[in-house]
Structures are given as structure tokens and as C-alpha cells.
Amino acid sequence: MRNVQLLPPHQYYYEQDGELLIGEYAADTLREQKLAAVAEWELSQEKTIILLNGHEFDYSKESYGVALGYLLANSLPETWTDAHNNETPVTLEFMQSLVGAMANHVSQTHSKQRKMKNDLNSMTSPADIAAYEVPSV
């Protein structure tokens, strides 16, 4: 077994004719891996928690659609269940705040993923692409 140094994430070892050499991943390959991580992060944001008035509420596209539907129909439920199954009385102000918080989450998620994609698509250096941090899921 050889003693080898740890390589940066854009490089790898390979053996040729008994000699240990260092190769570099292609920028396009690394970019596709990072873009896949961005897509995974974006999907993780579709089911998350929204903090509103000291309560945690589940967020999903479905819950956003339901809340928005109630608001637009001007037909509010009596209560809304938070992420811990506690019921919160619903007022027009509460429902407007909840829908606003959910819309803000959607906007922030979209902006962040667009920025990450633009950043990655503008990079040409395998080292820069490999070092680019995508938030963990």
C-alpha cells in the first residue's frame, strides 16, 4: 500500500503502467453533480417548517395551495394545525400572514436556487466548481 496525500475534490488518483498519477475531473462532470445537489436542496425546501408568531407550521406546496385557497375564497377554517398538531385560531390577519410567509419562502427558495445555478454555470475551473458549497439537505 502506498502512502498518498489527500487530494482536493476535483482531483483523483489513477494508476498507469505501475505509476500512480493524478487526474482532474472534467468541469462539466463536476458541474452536473453540483447542479443535481442544487435540485436536491430545492426539493428539500418543498417540505419544511415556517416560523410565524412563535409557532412552527409545516410548509409544502399542498399546504400553501390550501391556505391560499381559503384566503382567496374568503372562507376561513376555524383553526389551522401547526407542525406539532396544536390548533391555532384562524383570523383573516393570521391567514394573510401565513400565506405571506409561505409565499416569501417560495420566493427565497427560487432566488437562492437560481443564484446557485447561475454561479455554477458561470464557473469553468474544476477546482472552483468542486469547492462550491451547496447547502446540505
Characteristic terms for this protein:
single chain, 137 residues, alpha+beta, two-stranded antiparallel sheet, 6 strands
Concise account of the structure shown:
The protein has 137 residues and is an alpha+beta fold. 50% of the residues lie in helices and 20% in strands.
Textual characterization of the structure:
The protein has helices spanning 27-44, 61-73, 92-122, 126-131, and strands spanning 11-16, 19-24, 48-52, 55-59, 79-81, 87-89. The strands form three sheets. A two-stranded antiparallel ribbon has the order 1-2. It has a two-stranded antiparallel ribbon with strand order 3-4. Strands 5-6 form a two-stranded antiparallel sheet. The two termini are 36 Å apart. By secondary structure, it is an alpha+beta fold.
List the helices and strands and how they pair.
Blueprint: E1 11-16, E2 19-24, H1 27-44, E3 48-52, E4 55-59, H2 61-73, E5 79-81, E6 87-89, H3 92-122, H4 126-131
Antiparallel strand pairs: 1-2, 3-4, 5-6
Helix pairs in contact: 1-3, 2-3
Q: Strand portion, in percent?
A: 15-25%
Amino- and carboxy-terminal Cα gap: 36 Å
Helices and strands, in order, run as: EEHEEHEEHH
Shape: elongated
Sheet with the most strands, sense and barrel status: 2 strands, antiparallel
Give the helix tally.
4
Q: Taking Cα atoms only, what radius of gyration do you get, to the nearest Å?
A: 23 Å
Structural class: alpha+beta
Mean pLDDT: 94
- Assembly category: single chain
Instruction: Give helix % range.
Output: 40-55%
- Give the strand tally: 6
What topology, given as strand order, has the largest sheet? 1-2
Low-confidence stretches: none
